[in-house]
Structure formats: structure tokens, C-alpha cells
UniProtKB/TrEMBL annotation:
Pfam families reported in the protein's UniProt record: Hexapep, PglD_N
Residue span(s) of domain PglD N-terminal: 6-82
Transmembrane segments: none
NCBIfam families assigned to the protein according to its UniProt record, in alphabetical order: NeuD_NnaD
Protein name in UniProt: Unannotated protein
């Protein structure tokens, strides 16, 4: 079977990490993906593209560019902002492209895990059982998602985040690097948990919390 072409939206650091993820999947399971280039609103530096043996295709907002992609082309959106991922999902979806789900070969994903389209699960992550992941979730390296967790759409888990059992995470939330959330907590839509924070109580929608234990930033 011929590999399926895939474009990556976002040619920054996360985009290059996702390119490595695609290549690791291809090396592990030959015939899965064929990288078709980067899409980005900002033209990346040629030397940066050369450093990862990649090329720039065009802007995701350019319908002519999207129409020139192979008819069976999939896409991955490799930007940190959940809102920006949502916008790009809409742009590429309206052009007839399908979101790819990318799971690194070293990730451990339980058999009772429900994933909506467009997941990115990076190296070393563990997702246990009875977990639901919404559209466009981005789970970075070495994260842990325990039993009975419900994750909304376009959520970002930064490297090393630990989500304990029975946690609910609202759409567009961002969990910082090495942050931890105790069992049973609800994180509201659009909230931000700072790097290294320890969340021991519910977080209101749109709130930013930091520290150990995590507390809201004054004035937000």
C-alpha cells in the first residue's frame, strides 16, 4: 500500500517535532505516511527547512495552494495554541483534507481510549484506560493521562504533564510543562495551568493558575 501524503501546518519548533514524529511512525511502520511539506502563514527560513530535509508548500489560508495538494492528503496542525489549531482545522477541512491522528511508536495507549480526529501523541506518553480525547488534542512528550479522564477539543498538554484519574479538561485548555493535576479535578474551558504547577482544586474557565499548590494569577 502506498503511503498517505501528509502536510504539517506550522513550521516552527513544534512543527519540526511533529515531522520527526511522522518519520518515526514511517520508520516503525513502512508505508504509513509520506511528508508532503509544511504549510505556514510565515515563510520559514530556507536553512531551517534544509536542516530537517523539508520544504515549504505555502500558506494554509491560500485555497489555491490547498487545492494543489494530493486529493488524499491528510494534515496535522503543529501549533501550540488550541484556538489557532481550531482555525487551521476549519481552513483545511473546508478544502477537503482530513486530519491525521499521529501516535508515536513509543507511546502507550490503552485499549479503551476514545480519540476524536486529529490527535498528536508524542514520544513516551502514557494514556491508560477509559479516556476520551476531543478533536485536535496535542499531547507532548512524556505526558501521563490516567483512567477516566475526559479531554475537550483543542487541548494542549505540554511535555511532562501528569493528569490523574477522573479529571475533566475543558476545550482549549493548556497544561504547562511538568504540571500535575490530582484526581477528580475539573479544569475549565480555556484555562491555563502554568509550568510545574500542582492543581489540587477546580480551575474556573479562562483562568490562569500557577504555583504549588496552584492558585490564580491576581487580576485574571
Amino acid at each position: 500500500m502506498a503511503p498517505q501524503p501528509i502536510v504539517i501546518v506550522g513550521a516552527g519548533g513544534m512543527g519540526r517535532e511533529v515531522l520527526q514524529l511522522v518519520r518515526d511512525i514511517e520508520n516503525h511502520s513502512a508505508g504509513s505516511w509520506e511528508f508532503a511539506g509544511f504549510l505556514d502563514e510565515v515563510i520559514p527560513a530556507p536553512n531551517l527547512m534544509a536542516s530537517v530535509n523539508a520544504h515549504y508548500v505555502g500558506r494554509p489560508s491560500d485555497t489555491t495552494c490547498l487545492n494543489d495538494l494530493p486529493s488524499n492528503c491528510a494534515f496535522a496542525v503543529a501549533v501550540g495554541s488550541g484556538i489557532d489549531r481550531s482555525v487551521n482545522f476549519d481552513l483545511l477541512g473546508s478544502a477537503g483534507l482530513e486530519p491525521a491522528t499521529l501516535i508515536h511508536p513509543t507511546a502507550v495507549v490503552g485499549s479503551v481510549v476514545t480519540m476524536e480526529p486529529g490527535q498528536t501523541v508524542c514520544a513516551g506518553t502514557v494514556i491508560t484506560t477509559n479516556v476520551r480525547l476531543g478533536v485536535g488534542t496535542q499531547i507532548n512528550m512524556l505526558c501521563t493521562v490516567a483512567h477516566d479522564v475526559v479531554v475537550g477539543s483543542f487541548v494542549t498538554l505540554s511535555p511532562g504533564a501528569i493528569i490523574s484519574g477522573s479529571v475533566t479538561i475543558g476545550s482549549f485548555a493548556t497544561i504547562g510543562s511538568n504540571a500535575s493535576v490530582i484526581p477528580g479535578v475539573t479544569l475549565g474551558e480555556g484555562c491555563t495551568v502554568g509550568a510545574g504547577a500542582a492543581v489540587i482544586r477546580d480551575v474556573e474557565p479562562g483562568t490562569t493558575v500557577v504555583g504549588v499548590p496552584a492558585h490564580p494569577i491576581s487580576g485574571r
